[in-house]
Design goal:
Blueprint: H1 2-24, H2 29-37, H3 44-49, H4 55-70, H5 78-97, H6 102-109, H7 112-119
Helix pairs in contact: 2-4, 4-5, 5-6
């Protein structure tokens, strides 16, 4: 009986550990901003929307924007957050599909100050 309880305890601990690991894999707003917009001229945003953008860069940017849309805004109206992040995701999806002018639409939707003004907490 003790062996069964020990095995059950180990299994429970393992599953709880997996749950914590999955929760830690969720990207934060800061993670997305650093990965997508960090790096100045060499940012993923610029690479994925430029004339020589690779499919991988476009897909990575879309993935990051989808993760951003799942986050809660630290400040401001959640409806505004959904509108802004939905526009980012839609433009990034069009960019992955190779639609004409999609790169410019992504850059327009990624207007930093429009989002920061209403959603970024004071520094």
């Amino acid at each position: 009986m003790r062996i069964v309880m020990a095995v059950a305890g180990l299994a429970l601990a393992f599953l709880l550990g997996l749950g914590v690991a999955w929760a830690e894999d969720k990207l934060t707003i800061s993670d997305v901003m650093k990965q997508a917009h960090g790096g100045g001229q060499n940012s993923l945003l610029n690479k994925a929307t430029g004339p020589n953008a690779s499919k991988e860069d476009k897909e990575k940017l879309l993935s990051l924007y989808k993760a951003l849309a799942e986050c809660k805004p630290p400040r401001g109206d959640e409806k505004s957050w959904k509108e802004k992040t939905s526009a980012l995701v839609a433009a990034a999806e069009a960019n992955v599909k190779g639609e004409p002018g999609a790169g410019a639409k992504v850059r327009q939707a990624a207007n930093c100050m429009a989002c920061h003004r209403v959603h970024r907490p004071p520094q």
